[in-house]
C-alpha cells in the first residue's frame, strides 16, 4: 500500500487532502473509513499493526500523517470543530502546521495523537478515546436528538 500522501496542506485544503487519503487507503482494501467516531477504532488498530513491525518512524511518517489528518477530519465533521493553521508557537509545541479548533476555542492536535499512539501505544493514546473525551464538542440540540429518534 502506497502511504506517501504528500505534503500536509494548510487548513483550507485539509478536507480534500483527507479525501485523497481515504481514497488511497480504501482503494484495495475494504477499510470502513466512513468518518464515523467508530472508524477511529480502526485507526487505532492500524497504528497498532504498524507498531508491531517496529519500523523507524521515518518509514511510516506518511501513513501516520494521513491517519492523523483523517482523525482530525472526523473531529471536524462529528464534533463541530474546524481546521486551523497553527501559529508559530503552536507549530513549535505540536510539531504540526494544522490543528482543529473546537467550538469552545480549544485547539487539539489529532496528527500528533496518532504519532503518540505509534511511539507510545497504550489505551491512553487511543484516537477514539481522544474523541470521546474531547472537551468543547458541539452540543446536540433537543431538535437534533428528536430527529434521531431520541
Strand content: 5-15%
| Average pLDDT taken over every residue | 88
Give the ordered list of helices and strands: HHHEHEEHHH
**CATH C-level category:** Mainly Alpha
**What is the overall silhouette?**
globular
From the alpha carbons, calculate the radius of gyration and give it in angstroms: 15 Å
CATH level-two architecture? Up-down Bundle
Count of DSSP strands: 3
What helical percentage do the residues reach? 40-55%
Give the SSE layout.
Layout: H1 14-26, H2 39-52, H3 57-79, E1 82-85, H4 88-94, E2 98-101, E3 107-108, H5 110-120, H6 127-133, H7 142-147
Antiparallel strand pairs: 1-2, 2-3
Helix pairs in contact: 1-3, 2-3, 2-5, 3-5
Short description:
The chain is mostly helical. It has helices spanning 14-26, 39-52, 57-79, 88-94, 110-120, 127-133, 142-147; strands at residues 82-85, 98-101, 107-108. Helix content is 54%, strand content 7%.
Describe the 3D structure.
With 150 residues, this protein is mainly α. The chain has a single domain (11-135), classed as Four Helix Bundle (Hemerythrin (Met), subunit A). Helix content is 54%, strand content 7%. It contains seven helices and three strands, in the order αααβαββααα. The protein has a three-stranded antiparallel beta sheet with strand order 1-2-3, covered by helices on one side. A hairpin with a 5-residue loop joins strand 2 and strand 3. Helix 1 packs across helix 3 and helix 3 (57-79) packs across helix 5 (110-120). The radius of gyration is 15 Å and the shape is globular. The model is unreliable at 141-150 (pLDDT under 50).
